[in-house]
Every structure is written in structure tokens, then in C-alpha cells.
Specification:
Strands 1, 7, 30, 32, 34, 37, 39 and 41 form an eight-stranded mixed β-sheet that branches. A seven-stranded mixed β-sheet has the order 44-43-42-45-48-47-49. The chain has 50 helices and 50 strands. It is α+β, with helices and mostly antiparallel strands and 1537 residues long.
Amino acid sequence: MNTGSSGAGFGAFRMWFLCFLLLSLLAAVSGGADSKAVTTTLTTKWADTPLLLEASEFLAEESQEKFWDFVEENQNIEGEHDDTDQAYYDLIVKKASTLLSAVQLNMLKFALSLRAYSATVHSFQQIASNEPPPAGCSAFFSVHGETTCDAASLAALLETAPQRPKPYLFKGDHRYPGSSPDAPVVILYAEFGTTDFQKLHQAVSSKVHEGQATYVLRHFLDKPSGRKVHLSGYGVELAIKSQEYKAKDDTQVQGVEVNATVIGENDPVDEVQGFLFGKLKTLYPELKEQLKELRKHLVESTNEMAPLKVWQMQDLSFQTAARILGAPAVDALNVMKDLSQNFPTKAMSITKTVVNTEIRKEIGENQKFFKGTLGLQPGDSALFINGLHVDLEAQDMFSVFEILRSEARVMEGLRSLQIESLYIHDVLKLNVQPSDSDYAVDIRSSAINWINNLETDHRYSSWPYNVQELLRPTFPGVIRQIRKNFHNLVIILDPTQENSAELLSVAEMFYTNNIPLRIGLVFVVSDEDDVDGMQDAGVALLRAYNYISDEVDSHSAFEAIISMFNRIPIGGQLSVGDVVKVLEKRFPYVEVSSVLGADSTYDSNRKEGRAYYKHTGVGPLPVVMYNGIPYQREQLDPDEMETVTMQKILETTTVYQRAVYLGELATDHDVVDFVMNQPNVVPRINPRVLSTSRNYLDLTDTNNFFIDDYARFSTLDAKERSGAVANSMNYMTKKGMTTTNRHDDGVVRPVTFWVVGDFDKPSGRQLLYDAIRHMKTSNNVRLGMINNPSGAPSVESSRVTRAIWAAMQTQSANNAKNFITKMAKDETAAALEKGVGIGEFAVGGMDVALFKEAYESPSLDFLLSHAVYCRDVLKLKKGQKAVISNGRIIGPLEEEEVFNQDDFLLLESLILKTSGEQIKSKIMQFGSEEDRASDLVMKVDALLSSQPKGEARVEYGFADDRYSAVKIRPSEGDVYFDVVAVVDPVTREAQKLAPLLLVLKQLVNVNLRVFMNCQSKLSEMPLKSFYRYVLEPEVMFHPDGSFAPGPMAKFLDMPQSPLFTLNLNTPESWMVESVRTRYDLDNIYLQEVENMVAAEYELEHLLLEGHCFDVSSGQPPRGLQFTLGTASEPVIVDTIVMANLGYFQLKANPGAWILKMRKGRSDEIYKIYSHDGTDSPPDSDDIVVVLNNFKSRIIKVKVQKKPDKYNEELLSDNTEENDTGFWKSLTRGFTGGGKSEEVKQEKDDVINIFSVASGHLYERFLRIMMLSVLKNTKTPVKFWFLKNYLSPTFKEFIPHMAKRYGFQYELVQYKWPRWLHQQTEKQRIIWGYKILFLDVLFPLAVDKILFVDADQIVRTDLKELRDFDLEGAPYGYTPFCESRREMDGYRFWKSGYWASHLAGRKYHISALYVVDLKKFRKIAAGDRLRGQYQGLSQDPNSLSNLDQDLPNNMIHQVPIKSLPQDWLWCETWCDDSSKRSAKTIDLCNNPMTKEPKLQAAVRIVAEWTDYDQEIKRLQTRVQDEGSQNAKRHSSDVHTEL
């Protein structure tokens, strides 16, 4: 009682104290300014896509079955919800919930919030627009190119369809289940969920059921919405700019309309100076207004950022960590997000935090672990989800989403196999990915004709014999000459094939140069009995070889063969004449026909050679093997083969060294035996077994269904059917047979084979017989059978099958095995056919009566079930054979295809090596009974191995997580994600990670540990920016049920004194541009803003990136051009291939695009050889690429010179002189922007000027620079601007200016390639663009470009500079002036590094330069500059003026022509007397006076103000016209009403 009353008394006191505090503080609050905000949104260019369609694409990634179930369920939902957005969304989630698990449903909500599938839906829209849609149809069919929306005319179109070509179908297309592949294709373009769709869908699906059509559905919106898609998954940074040089424009911004709803009541950060306002508002609702005032006051008092002393900064990282760790676990992530994202204003209060020694000590201990196991230094960050490393730099949210989804699938699969949550993560961590180890075949065969033998041949007798020689140190790359057959090269060839000669000449080169390589040949020639060598060149060569090696030795025989091949003309084939000529010359007295003729005695190894080739299964001829490992096709090119072989010799030497060192290999051992006893040696290589594209059954369903109830079985879905088949399977094993109720032996068998075939047909029985023979040799295997009858199941056609089934059901293990082995023989089947009773074949000890009863039972349910299982799940035709090994489907096997005992052995060793053994030992720990354990191994293997091959999971260790980690435990009993983050809380990574982890926590059940990885002794402010990461776990709504305005970045309560610049951090392949904002986003000064700056960005392009190589040289084809477009408009964008990595990039958007080489030089000299990562078959000439998601897309293209153009170069001196095709295509504008005016044929008469600017002030300077050029230059001018950083205001105004002054212009853009070291500061990025991409920014037709800085004034005709003779240098720069002596102290190039590097040369200024692009490209200057930049830029202290330091640093590799001094005058460095003769004046910064640019411009340049006024008058006129048009437009609207 007592405690209660004192508690109540304390509450009243608290209330009183709070009121007092509020009043006293409010008295101190004088009318301060309102809080200011900056918001940022990013939308797509395309119209909003319906969430229903996005949800269907999410389901399509689960399976096509689920997609179609969802479509069928939602054919027409028009009356199913009241019309609010929320009801529509809830309906989608409800309908999807029947098809998805709880975790996957959360993933769907997240995908809809991310709008991850909007691009997928829109890509179909773009494909539809190429069709094009018939008029007046909201949904339509396309049948082989003919379109209609009339369901009645479908039948007629289907009849005529075969006369027209089939349409191209993409990987992402949705094919209706049960469509017959040979029928005509009907593509339905529609929006499902509408009445129109329902009508057409029913019409076409009925045709599919009749077998008359293949049905493909593509999304199509007849009337796209007016809204745009609001994207998330990107970061926004508000960086504090240095105000050393004032770079703010003084022009007043016109009134800005603000959407005030953005700043809601609940947005502000909860904690301000220790007060938790969220809690206070809920506790004391009656004080809401006063709390608001208090909060405002506190915000303003903290926001003014007092600069910190160096000693205060030292411990900031640890202090921030201590603040985070001090918060309750549920709030810790929020605290981390708040502190890291608003660090500049929080830093002062953080400096007061005390860090206890336990935290420091534990962080130090953990850092040793992080460094050792993960390679992380203090201050580094990393994120692991279930042990998979998520690279925060490269990974975008969309890839993280994919990881979450696939992990959820696997964990739920393991869960449904009834594996305890406890063990799930143990099983997940098993690395079962097929290793890339190369399989080898046995080369100890008499079919191989060895040319030499290092151990016995006389020519090697001086070499040492002892294997210990391998351990003797030598120079790197030296091949040790030891008299042992360590390295064996076998060439299997058909002598009559063209490329045989090349391979033998490489072998000869190895032999004559005494490379320690034993070389063997296998000739694959005709193996008929009485073949005449005088008619067959291959046989002739083999007999000649045998004759010479018998008469002389194998080496002479080899030489003779080489001579025979040397006689063949280029492109010709070996003829009998070539063999005869060489034989006659070398052995003039022998009768040739007796050696080569039909009754020759020199015939050894003729049949054996072909048999060896057939048996080993090594693939198409010719084959080259090193120690039995076949080379890949592309390694058979002669130069490549030489390199690869030498490489293999060096690599294998280290393996031998290890074996000798460990005593596994001694001098008296046979080395070849040693190599051939390695585990990767198999009797036969079957590409079917070893191929990496694998198909697995889904065996994760745990149910109680069996196959002996066909009626029930036929109603199950694919996953349940696989479960039922597994439940009903009885197995044979080496020691007998196991079934669920009988234990013959307690062994867990990690390999399960299911043999599929018709056992009443010889080929099916042969497969079963080979499987049984293999099973009898191995203790690891269980063998089950699935029957795939060739015809309709009947008693007559299934004698053997039923006998096997009955024996399995009724007999003891050993008897059944012996009986079935008998049944698999052909003579048994023949006897049964003749009517011999089944009892005749009984083996001793069988219970014949019981067996007969089962055999004669009339029920064929098991057979019917097996038959539909083979048809629907295994996708086999009737009677086709297949083998299923631990759920992996190998098949369908062709009728004649050999799959024998050796293949089963290969398959077993493959499974044991990759997954079987590991999973078995893990499952043994669970202690389940043997059969269930063997079953589990099979099912877990099928699940884990079916996952796409990714990075290996990381094992991470740490000392302790008591004091230095934020821990969030998962909810009990459920599957959970194991998430580990290592982070320094005052880094950019922490700013990104905190919001990501918060969303993860809401999305899925996590076991989360966030380890602090702090840096000590900081010497500068670790974070100089505010940051927001835009991400929401699900779609948000207004209280009235309409969609909330979409995800956005909000910076509220920002300090008003600093100058900010706004940057977007988007995924690598996004190109975004700023649209619709009046403020200068480069210089945001909140004191001058009324209440908020709303920045709007648009996703302008998704990049298609690629790498291109020339097959013959292996080098990138510099200067090759690609175009991207559609069938109707082939050239929409184009690009040039760089030499660095053969990289190219093309700007695209969701849809299907065709990639081609540009008409002109590119497609005259080159043809496309192959391509990878695209959406068209590898052999098609048209490369189709479908962009249908927000993730990066990178393709690889190989090209080849046309035979007659072999010696031509793309970038030759006469390029493009008369290339009218190129000019015609240029009239379209290279990258959009300028009008498509007629390009003047005398191209010399255009001066091309390039410039970059960012921020309103520099754009103002840029307009004035342009005006000064136009006033002084008589030749037509074309301006090129870098579009990436221009403001919307500039882009709107430039067309008016072009019209008024009569110049051309074009906006170019290039995304900084991901492999080139990224700059983080906007100014440095812009500098990079000035110099790093000159060779790829402009079309090849532009051969001279002048760069003029935005803050320059031109006083002369620039034609003179364009025509200036550069004397062979790629570019010309003006050197820095030396004449203003008082600035000597600031001339850094006069001493230290620069003085020694320049060695008396001048240091040049980058404000004005002229580039001879033809020369620049020819000497690969761009590639050299990028290479040097890549090396230097890793050091943050180098290249402080990137655009200027880089060319000066490269002066020895890329020469600079110095322009005369009067080309650039700048007051900082040049004296006043030289100003009179200046041709251009640059407004350089002055490090001594720090004078603001605007002030300097007015003072230094007399004409500057006039130019400024002239442009302002034009701007006013344009604005007035704009507002009059707007008024006129609005009055028109009113009259319509």
C-alpha cells in the first residue's frame, strides 16, 4: 500500500517539475526561426504499375505454377474491394497469402514497398508497344504477328499461324501450363484483374486444353496511370561544404510551392538532448503544445554546430559506440541510426560520454578476431546474413532482397523436412556447391601411342632421377627437368580434321624444346574390318605411323606424321597422297600398298583408339588432355594451348612438391600410377553428369500420401507428388534391401539412385542392370525404381515391372535383390513373353505364394501413379529413361545413349565429394533411424544443391559479445536469419547499415549481433554529412485509405548556418537526374529558405554495361561502337568500347532491346562472334537484352574481324572521312539533347566546346562564358555539356538561349564505371569527368574538342585555338603564369615532388585545353589516364586537383603541347601588364585574398556585367512568356469546364 502511494506522489512531483521546467525554458525562448527541412524523392520516368501485377511477378519467381494460380484466382477483381487503395492492397496480400508462407508473405510486402517488380511489369509494356497494340483495344492477342482483340477471330488466326514465323519468347515470359510446344503461339497482352482480360483469357485457355495453342501472357496497360513510381533503396547525403571560397549565387529564388503535408507530426527524431519527446507526448497529452515549443528550443540550441577541438574528437568513435550500447537493446539500432545519420549536430553532446574499460577491452579482443578471420581493420564494416557476405559498397537493396528470399526458401525447406531450428544453421553452412575440380580419365591405356618416355629415353638420360629434386629451390617460373613422367599430354585426334596439324605442331614444339612432357597420340579412325588404307587417309596415316615406329622408333614416326601434315595446303585436308609421298621419300624400297593396303599387318591400335575415345566419353574431337584432364574448347587454340600447358605444368609441380614433402610420393613409385589413383580420376567422363546446369526435384514436402492410391495421387501438386513417390519407394542395397519397416543393416547411405525407365523394354532393363551391378560394388548406394511405361499401363505390357514391384513389396532383402537381377536380363523377359510362368524364375528361399498373390493383384495404381509422375513432374515422354541421384534429374536419356556402370560410379563419386559425405555426417548427429537418415540425406542434398551457386559462407569468430555488441534474439521456435554486422558507428557504412538492420528486424525473425569496430585517436571529424537511407518494410497509407506519398528522405530540424550540398547514392546501374526544383541543390543555405527545400529526382536510365573482346587477339577492340534500339528504331543510344577491360555502357530502360554494331566502320570490319549474359540464344546474330529489374546488368560480347579486314584498324587516320552512314546517324543527336538539325556536311566548320558546371552560380558563369564565345567567334559553335550535374533550371533555359543566339548544343552523360576508383566528393567527381572520359563522351566524328571552364570570359575567335598546331601531341594546355611575383609562395609546382617530376617542364592549368580526339584515341590516352588515376587515387592525399594533377603527372606518357601564355590570363598568377593581350580571362581562386567569385568577376572583367544583364533580360522574357502561356492554358481549362 505504502509503496503505491509514494509512487503516485512521485508521479505528481514529476508532473509539477516538468511544468516548471517548461515555463522557465519557454521564458528563455525568444521568437527563434522556424525549423527548416530538406526532402528528397526519386521517381521513375515510367507510369505507375499496378501492385497486383507486381505481386504476380513476385510469385513467378517462386514458380510458374504459383503465378498462374494467382492469375486464375484474380481474373477479374473489379467488384471485390471497395475502391480505396488500401482495400486493393489488402486484397492482393490476402489472395497471395494462400500461396505463400508467412515469411515469404512479408517478403512480398517488402517487394511491393521497394517496387522491385515495377521494372518487370514495365518491361512487358515496352515489349507491347513494339507490337503495336491495335486501336481501341484494352487487351489483345498477337498470333504470330497478327493482332486482334476479338475473341471470336482467334480460331481463324490460329489456322493461318503456321504460315507466319513464330514470335521470339523471352526467358521471363509466362507460359500457360499444359501448352503444347509445337502448337502456334498466342501472346495475350492484357492487365489481369479486369473484365477484358477474363474474356480473352478464357477464350485462349480453352484452346490450350484442346491442344491448339501455346499461351503466353504479357502485362499491358491500356491507360497507364498519371502517377509515377516512387522508388526506395537509395541513400541521400547532405554534405557540409567548405566556405573558404564563396560559391553561392546571389540571384533570388522565385517563390517555391511547398507540399506542407510532408512534415507530419510524428516525424521528428524522438530524442533531443536526452528528452524522449515521443514518450513525453504519450504520457502528457495535455502538454502537447508546450512540449512542441520546448522541443523546438532544444533543437535550435543544439543545431548550431560548435567546432570541436582535436582532443575532443580523438575518442568519438568509442564514445558513439558507448552511447549505442548503453541504450536498451530494442532501441539501440534507432540510437545508432540517429547518431550516425545526424552526426555533425550530435558530436558535441557525444564528446561528454564516458567509455568504460570493459567495452574498450572487448572491442580490442574482437578486433584481433576480425582482422584474422575476416581481414577487417579497425573502422571497417561488414554484414553477413546466414554467413553470406553482403558487400555494402556494391550491393544494392535489390540484391539483399534476393539473398533474403533464397535463404528463406532453403530454411523453410529444411524446416518442412522436420529438422530442428537448432540444427538448421549447421546444415545451411555446409558447402555443397559442386567444386570446380576437373575430372580426369585414366591414361594407362594401350590405345595411346606414346612418342617419348622421360624415364627410359636416351635423350633425357642426363636429367636427375630423384623426386627430391622437386624440393630444390629455383627461380619462379622455371620448369624443373626431372627424369620422371610427371606431366603427360595426350592428344586424341581424327587425322582428317583440319585443326589436327596445329595441335601436332604445338606438341612437336614441346618435344623439340625438351619440355619435360610425355606426349601420347590416339588416332580415331575407321574401325571397320577390312578397310583399305589406300582409300582412307586416316587409316593410311595410322598404318604408316605403326610401320615407322616398328622399323625405326616412335620419335621418327612422329616426325614423319608432322611432315605429312606440313604438305597440306591451308584450309585443306589430309589425303592418302600426302602419306604415300612421305613414306616413299623416307623408305624408297618398301612397297607402299603392303603397308597401307587392306591386308596390312601394321594395324595395331586401330580399333582400340576409337574404343578408348568412345569409352572415356571426353566429348567432340580433337581432345587434348593433361594428366587425363581434358582442355576446354577455347584452350585448343595453338597459342592458348601452349600457355595453358606451361601453366598446368607449373601448377601441378606444387602438388607434386607437397606429395614428396609429405612422403606420399617417393622415387621408386610409379608417378603415372600416383596421378591416376587421385580421387578426381574416373573411368569415364560423362558431360551429362558433370555439367554445371543442373535440375533438381523439390523433395521438401513431408506428407502421408502413397502411390498405391492413384485417385488421390492425381490430385496432388508437383511437390506433394515427389513426397508421395519418396514415401512409397523401396530400396535395394549392397547388403540386401531396406524398407521403412525392416532393417537389414544399420548403415546411412548418402547416395540414393532412382532409375526411371520402362523395364519391359530392353533399354530400360539395361539401365536397371547397370545400376544394380554398380550398387553391388558400393556400400554408399540405395537403389529405387520408377516405372515409365511406353504405352498405356496394362497387365500384358508390364510383366517384368509388376514382378519387380511385387518382389520389392513382399520378399526379404537378399532374395528380392537376386530375383530382380534375374528379371533385368533380356532372356527372362523373352521367356515371360512366351508364356513361361513367373514362378519358374523364383530364387531359393523366396516366399513364392506371397509373391504370386502380389504379382497377380489386378491393381495397377502404382504404375498409373508412376506414369503421371514421369509425365508431369519429371517432364519425360512415355518410355523415356532417366536417372535421379539425390533428387538431381539426369535425363531424359536418349534412346541410344550409353549410361553404364562407370557413369553410376562417376555420379556416386561426384555426390560423395560435393555433398553426400558432409550431409551424412551432419545428419548422423541428429540421431534419427537409418532409413529416415538416408532419406534426409537425399532430401537435404536436393534442397541445398538446387540453390544457385554463390559465395561460400563465412565462418566468423569473435572473442565475446557481452559488452561491445548490440544483440537482438529471435522469437522462439521459428526459423530465424542469423545476421552479424561489424561496424564503426561513425562511418558512412553505419549511416547505411542502421536503417537496413531496422528494416530487416521488422521484416523477418532475426538473431542479430552488431559488433562495434571502433577506431581510436581520430584526428578529424569522422562524418561531415547528414545522411538518410530511404527504405520502408511495407507500403504506407493515409488514414483515408489512399496511398501515402511514397518513400522519401527527410532532413528535419537542420542547422541553418552551414552551406550544404545534396548528393544521391543510388545502385550502380541507375542514372538519376534532378527535376523540378528551383533551389540550388549544390549550395543549400537554409537561412535563406522559407521553410523547406523539396528536391525531386527522376530515374532517367538503367545502365546496360558490358565487356567486349576480340576473339583473335584477346584484346578489347578500342573504338568499336555498339548501338541499342528496337526493331522499329534500331539506333536509340550508342557507345564506344574502351580499352580498359573492353568496357562499354549503354543507357536504357526496362524492356527488350537489340544490341548491334554501329553501321559504318564497326560493322564493316567486325562481326559478332559470341555473347554471354544476354537473352537470345548464343548463336543468333541479333543480340536481344531484356532489362526487367533494378539490378545491374552486365553482358559479355566477343567479336571477330571479318576475314578480308584482318589488317584494318578501327581508329586509323582516315577514319570517318567519308563515312556518310555515320553522319546520317548522327543527325539524331548522339545522346539526346540538341535538336536533330541537319548536320552541316563541312564538319570542319563547327567548333566543338565542352564544359562542366554544377550549382546555380557556376551555371550563371557558364551562360556568360557561352555568350562571350558567341560574341567573338564567327564560325558556328556547338556546345557539349555534361548532363549529370546540371540543374533543371539550366536545362529548361538552354533551348531558349540556343534559339536566340543560334548555336547547337548537346547534353552528354556517362556513368562513372564501377571498376574505376570512386570519388565521394561532388567537386572531385566533376573534376574527374573533365579528364577521364574524353575518349568515350563524344561521337567518333568529333575530332577536335575545346574545353573552356565555366568561369572564363573569351575575348577572341576560338577558331584560332581549334586550328592551333599541336605538333603530334594529343592535347594542348596553357602553362601557369609566372609573372605575378608576390604569389611565389603559393606556386607548389616549384618545389618538392612536382619540381623533380616535371624536370624543368611547365606545370599546366586545366581551365582551358584543346584535345585532338583522333590522336587521343589512337594512342589510347584515355586508357592510360584512367590506368594512372586508378593507381594514384587509392591514396587520399594524391591528386589534390584531380583534373590538373593527372595530365601533369602523365606528361612523360601522354605529352602536353604548351599553348602560348596569352591564351589564358588569370589575375592570381599573371601580372596586370599582360592582361591587355589576354585571349581568355579565367576567374581563378586567389589563395591569398579568398575573394568571392562574383565580386572578382565584376572587378576584373569590364564586359562581365553587360553579359550578365543581357542574359537576365532574356531569362525575364522567357519567364514572362511561360507565365502567359500558363495563364492562357488555365483559362482554356476553365472555358472547357
